[in-house]
Design brief:
alpha/beta; Rossmann fold; 10 helices
C-alpha cells in the first residue's frame, strides 16, 4: 500500500485516511498545516497510487493500515483521523487493532446500509464513457469540495479508477456494518458530521458514539460532508484540540 511520510523524527504520529475515490493527496492542506507532527498518509487499496492493491475491502484496508502503523509510526501507535470511507475504515481499525490507535477522529462515517448496492456496477458502466470529460471531472471536484488547484491529480485518479474498483468502493460504503469487538478500545473517539449532511449521517454518528467507552459526537456548524477538504483550517484546529485534550472549536456543537 502506497503512503507518504513526513515530519520530525521525534514527533507523535498522525495517520490521515482519505475519502472514497480519492487519495492521500486530498490531505495536502492538512499536511502543510501540521509540520510539527510525524504524518503517515496512505492511498488506501484500490485508490490513488494503490489502485493495484484493490479491490477495496474494509477489513483488508484496516489490516494494511494497522501494519503500516506498527512498522512506521513512532512508538508503534498513532492518532488516526478519517473522512467518509476513511472514517468507516477507522471504525474497522478500532475493531481489529485498537492497540495501534492513540486517539481517533472520524468524520462523515455512514453506519447505515443503503439500498441499491446491486445497481452500482451497471450505473458506473453507463458513467464510464463520460467520466474523463474535463467538464465532468470539474463537476465531480465541485461536488467533493476539492479546490480547483488539484484538477490534474483528481483527473489522474479519475482516469485510473476502473468500474470494478469504483464498484468495490461504493458497495463497501453502502453495505457498511458496524463491526463487533470494541471492548478493547481505550482510545478517545471523536465523531463529527457536517450540519448540512443528511439525517442518516447524524444518526450514524450518534449510534457510533454509543459503541465506545470514551466517544463524543458533534455537528460542525455550516459544514457539508467534505468539510476537511473545504475547511482545512477548522479541521486542523479541531484535530489539534482533540489530540491535546483541549476544548474543541466553537463551530462544533454536541450532537
Amino acid at each position: 500500500m502506497y503512503f507518504t511520510e513526513s515530519g520530525p523524527a521525534n514527533a507523535p504520529t498522525i495517520v490521515l485516511l482519505h475519502g472514497g475515490g480519492m487519495g492521500g493527496w486530498s490531505w495536502q492542506p492538512e499536511v502543510e498545516r501540521l509540520p510539527d507532527y510525524h504524518l503517515l498518509v496512505p492511498d488506501m487499496p484500490g485508490q490513488g497510487k494503490s489502485v493495484d492493491e484493490g479491490p477495496f475491502e474494509f477489513r483488508k484496508a484496516a489490516g494494511k493500515i494497522a501494519e503500516m502503523i506498527r512498522q512506521r509510526a513512532h512508538g508503534g501507535c498513532a492518532h488516526v483521523a478519517g473522512l467518509s470511507l476513511g472514517a468507516q475504515t477507522l471504525i474497522h481499525l478500532l475493531a481489529i487493532a485498537p492497540e495501534v490507535v492513540t486517539s481517533a477522529f472520524a468524520t462523515g462515517a455512514l453506519a447505515r446500509k443503503l439500498p441499491g448496492s446491486g445497481l452500482v456496477r451497471p450505473t458506473l458502466a453507463l458513467y464510464e464513457p463520460f467520466k474523463n470529460i474535463p467538464l465532468m471531472v470539474r463537476a465531480n471536484m465541485m461536488s467533493f469540495g476539492v479546490p480547483k488547484d488539484y484538477y490534474e491529480i483528481f483527473a489522474a485518479d479519475t482516469r485510473a479508477a476502473s468500474v470494478d474498483a469504483l464498484t468495490a468502493i461504493l458497495r463497501e460504503n453502502m453495505t457498511f456494518e458496524v463491526p463487533a469487538g470494541f471492548d478493547g478500545v481505550m482510545a478517545p473517539v471523536l465523531l463529527t458530521v457536517g450540519e448540512k449532511e443528511y439525517g442518516m449521517m447524524k444518526s450514524s454518528a450518534r449510534e457510533l458514539a454509543t459503541k465506545f467507552p470514551a466517544a463524543k459526537a458533534y455537528t460542525v456548524t455550516g459544514a457539508g460532508h467534505n468539510w476537511p477538504i473545504s475547511q482545512p483550517d477548522l479541521y486542523v484546529r479541531t484535530l489539534r484540540a482533540w489530540i491535546a485534550g483541549a476544548p474543541l472549536p466553537p463551530e462544533l456543537k454536541p450532537l
